[in-house]
Amino acid sequence: MQLSHRLRALAALLAVVGGPLSVHAAQESAASISASSAPASILSSALSSVSASAVSSASVVPSSAPTSAPVSSSAAVSSSAPGPSSSAPVSLSSVLSSAPASLSSVISSAPASVSVSFSAASSASASASISSVASTPISASSAFISVSIPASNASISASTTAPPSVSVSASAAAAGSPSFNSGTGTETGPITVPLSEYTFSSFPVASSTPIPKVFVPVTPANPPPVSSDEIPDFAQAWADAYEKAEAFTLGLTVPEKVNVVTGVGWENGRCVGNIPAVGEWPGLCLEDSPLGVRDTDFNTAFPAGITAASTFNRSLIRTRGAFMGAEFKGKGVNLALGPMMNMGRVAQGGRNWEGFGADPFLSGAAAYETVLGLQSSGVQATAKHFINNEQEYKRTQESSNVDDRTEHEIYVAPFLQAVRAGVAAVMCSYNLVNDTYACENNRTLNQILKGELGFRGFVMSDWSAQHSTLSAVAGLDMSMPGDIDLGSHTSWWGPNLTAFVDNSTIPDSRLDDMVTRILASWYFLGQDAPDFPPVSFNAFNNNDPATNQHVDVQGDHWTVVREIGAAGTALLKNNGALPLNKPKNIAIIGSDAADASMGPNGFSDRGGDDGILAMGWGSGTANYPYLIAPVDAIQDRAVQDGTDVNWWFLDFNTAGAQTAAFGFEAAIVFANADSGEQYITVDGNAGDRNNLTLWHNADNLINAVAEVNNNTIVVVHSVGPCILEAWIENPNVTAVLWANIAGQEAGNSIVDVLYGDFNPSGRLPYTIAKSPSDYPAQPTGGGGPNDIISVPYTEGLFIDYRHFDAQNITPRFEFGFGLSYTTFAYSNLRTSTIAQQDHDSTQLEQAWAKGEATPNVEGASTAVWLHRPAFEVTFEVKNTGPVAGGEIPQLYLHSPDSSEPPSLLRGFADVLLSPGESQTVRITLSRYDLSVWDVDAQGWRKPSGAFQISVGASSRDFRLSGTLPV
Ligand code: NOJ
Fold first, then answer.
1. Which of these ranges, 200-204, 420-424, 791-795, has the smallest mean pLDDT?
2. Where would I find the Fibronectin type III-like domain in this sequence (predicted)?
């Protein structure tokens, strides 16, 4: 009888390791394979001995029905694998079954290539696409091989007597490490899971004796005030939380511990991620997004991260975090899945708008304030996506190949600040980093995050970004949502993790550490309080009266939404057209000014561009409780001013727009550009933007209106930079406002700026170029459906404005740029050192001053002495114009070394001044702010030479300069 079924997943994971963690290698001469997620009977009959010199096959024994629940088993296979110096090929067999399987093996060898073949006997048919096959030597005598075949790419139809087979062969040959940045296109290098040599102990965060007003022992509920000199020291709060967590963990069985670290599976709970209750511990609700509570109602839709960053205003960013945190907690959420801190490496990156722009200092400051704010309200924050998840195209099949210095100074930087702020969780990303998946990457998770940064919280996987059971030893602490593929009802962990712990492949101590980290984070936020709200919504069925209690958590949070929408708007051009002053009549042009015809939430996860654009699309969204369109807000104002209003929303009918705009005192053209997460495609854009042009014919619309109206004002709502060359120099375009994506109050926010109720002070958190090719990096394309592509970060440290500065490329609008309705004068720059009060760290500080790198010990990168204010820059800012307004003075550091980026943002402030008023502005710098990452010493080091600084209104508008007394 012919049996046919769908092979839902096959993943063979073959480890060839000779390092200290190679439990089997150290103890056995034969390799050992443990297989999971397949019925024992299948595995034991399928696994066979293999020889070192020939590829052998394993039988596929189809089962009569797909396995619906995870099962686990283990079996042994003998192998005569060659020793470290051998160049003979080794081969291992894998097994196909109806259930997902994973295999691991330990053989001491250093294979240079791996191949997988899939074959079927004549009476059977089978196919499988292999998504990743690779190996990497991790030392002269060891290497790791990984092979995976995703569920969606494999199917099998076979007779029981002639089953298909899969063979995996690894041939040992040339030594040598894979080269990084080896070129674009299909990844030819290896994909690996280097097994950690890590000891699995929790490490103490370096901490100094508390010094009043400098290092302040704090809890998440009581963070230091915004912009104070106080360095929060969470060490004691973590220690208290760990004590409770360790005590609780002691009483758990292995399966109970496994439940704490494994999600219940996609859509099996009321939140987007769920950890089940264990004993008296209630479990966890994890919910998106970085701009508000997703998938519910009676919540606030806050401005996106990019808009918050554009304010350059720490108080507003902290308040936004605190208000969002209150809403998450109010809905019963334990973990808010934000902030998002990827770096906007490529301008088209689909999810850049969720983050804080293209400068690591700005992004770090915004991440720091957001985490402090969120956690001050009692919700655990999740810093994501760790790391190098910089494009949506092939996000699960791209290796971001990044050098160590760039990784530390650009991409880790915001995560470092989140750790300093006491972030409870970090989400590892979908992509590979230097050929290893980010959720099983010993280097980034164990060494950098938990080691150098001393991160004491836990690492969760992005949804289905986990690729192996052994990811536990590479630093992953929680599997989200718990199943291998969404809804597959299979898991890399669950019973498989139990089996791996039972057979000592994964040490008990590692499982204990995972559980302790998760529980400690819960205690750290005080979520053991009996009055912590229960989950009161259903992310998967908002309309279910039994599970959605419609708890209203909005408070008056709309006020800060409106303010950030205005404060995050940058005035890019103004020939005197703005602010509007009781205009006689105005024409409003463009669909971006209008209400969405399908309602504010008409597109699922905002996956459409219709009407006012106030957030991008994907999981980084929330439902709007309401959405104020510009046309509505302008009309409210028109009632007060007695202004006649006309409008035209048909973007592609430019003749109609001209008719509507002709003869009006001002024509305001609203335009936008949208992007999002790759699981939704909008107008042919699969997450990343296809180009940097404005959407909906906006260039033509603007020029057409400007042809008939010499006071054409342009307002752009955009997820990121756009090319504006088609109309920016048109003399009839008299003003341009860059409004980002502003959340539910978008219309009111822009009216506040247009009419001068809010004097614009927003600044660009990225560069707007004249041409797309001016940017240092483009999205990487190519690759077949099963290929892993290379994304070489060859621009290194030179992302965004650093590249434009170094290459002398004139941008259209530079990073940090934004005008005001008033003017400011800068004067009297002074620099000094800040008196030393921390005698514990005197030696470290003296070593740093001599140019020695910081010690390579756990927590060294977040040590309080390295981050305390050490240098002070003061100057005067005076409002020299006619109206009150806010200024954003920025401090840039210049390296004496011409091979370094010419200017680096290292400080900013926000000042609000009445006409004629002056204020002394003080910006402090830490030793970390002046340091570079020393790749050889693996520490932060002061470069030699003088530290020149400039202070001014943008990255190219310097008004004062000086030298730091270092
Ligand atoms: C995948 C996204 O990348 C992540 O940001 C999000 O939190 C999870 N899905 C859960 O929705």
1. 200-204
2. 887-955
Helix (H) or strand (E) holding 656: helix 654-661
Write the CB contacts of 208 (distance below 8 Å, at least 6 apart in sequence). Answer: 215, 233, 838, 840, 841, 863, 864, 865
Closest-lying ligand 1 atom to the alpha carbon of residue 340: 5
How buried is 857 (Cβ within 10 angstroms: 0-12 exposed, 13-18 middle, 19+ buried)? middle
CA 642 to ligand 1 center in whole angstroms: 47
Are the beta carbons of 767 and 814 closer than 8 angstroms? yes
Mutating to test ligand 1, I would choose from 266, 271, 286, 288 the residue with most ligand atoms within 8 A of its C-beta, which is 288
Q: Which pLDDT band, with edges at 50, 70 and 90, does 212 fall under?
A: low
The model's confidence at residue 364, banded by pLDDT at 50, 70 and 90, is: very high
Number of the ligand 1 atom closest to the C-alpha atom of 273:
10
* Residue 297 · residue 550 · CB < 8 Å: yes
C-beta of 272 in contact with ligand 1 (< 6 A): yes
* Cα(50)–Cα(946) distance, integer angstroms: 63
Dihedral sign (CA 879, 883, 884, 890): negative
> Distance between CA atoms of 340 and 429, rounded to whole angstroms?
11
| Amino acid at the residue 255 | P
Task: Tell me the C-alpha distance between 19 and 89, whole Å.
Answer: 20
Which protein residue's CA is at the shortest distance from atom 3 of ligand 1? 462
Distance of CA 651 to the CA centre of its chain: 34
Domain spans in the chain, listed from the N-terminal domain onward: 10-171, 236-524, 569-760, 824-964
When pLDDT is averaged across residues 343-367 and rounded to a whole number, the result is 98
CB-ligand 1 contact for 295 (6 Å cutoff): no
Kindly state the DSSP code that residue 418 receives in the 8-state scheme: H
Using CB atoms within 10 Å of the CB of residue 521, give its burial: 0 to 12 exposed, 13 to 18 middle, 19+ buried.
Answer: buried
Q: Which atom of ligand 1 lies nearest, measured to the CA of 618?
A: 2
The verdict on the CB of residue 407 being under 6 Å from ligand 1 is no
Question: What number is the average pLDDT over the span 650-664?
Answer: 98
pLDDT of 180 > 50? The answer is no
In this structure, are residues 151 and 485 in contact, taking their beta carbons and an 8 Å threshold?
yes
The amino acid sitting at 893 is: L
* Other beta carbons less than 10 A from residue 663's beta carbon: 12
Asked if pLDDT for residue 65 goes beyond 70, the answer is no
Runs of H (alpha helix) within 19-160: 23-27, 40-46
Residue 647 pLDDT > 70: yes
Ligand 1 pocket mutation pick from 266, 337, 480 by most atoms within 8 angstroms of CB: 337
> Full-prediction pTM beyond 0.90?
no
> Does ligand 1 come within 6 angstroms of the Cβ of 294?
no
DSSP state of 236: H
Distance CA 106, CA 83 (A): 12
**Burial 37-76, CB ≥16 within 10 A → b, else e:** bbbeebbbebbeebebeebbbbbbbbbeeebeebbbbbbb
Q: Beta-carbon neighbour count of residue 374 at 10 Å?
A: 33
Task: Tell me if 336 CB under 6 Å of ligand 1.
Answer: no
What's the Rg (C-alpha) of the chain? 29
Right CATH for 824-964 from 2.60.40.10, 3.40.250.10, 3.30.565.10, 3.40.50.720: 2.60.40.10
462 lines ligand 1 (CB under 6 A): yes
Instruction: Please give the positions annotated as active site.
Output: 462
Domain 569-760 has CATH 3.40.50.1700: yes
CATH topology of domain 236-524: TIM Barrel (3.20.20)
* Residue 117: Cβ within 10 Å count: 13
Ligand 1 atom 11: residue of nearest CA: 619
Q: How far is the CA of 691 from the centre of ligand 1 (A)?
A: 24
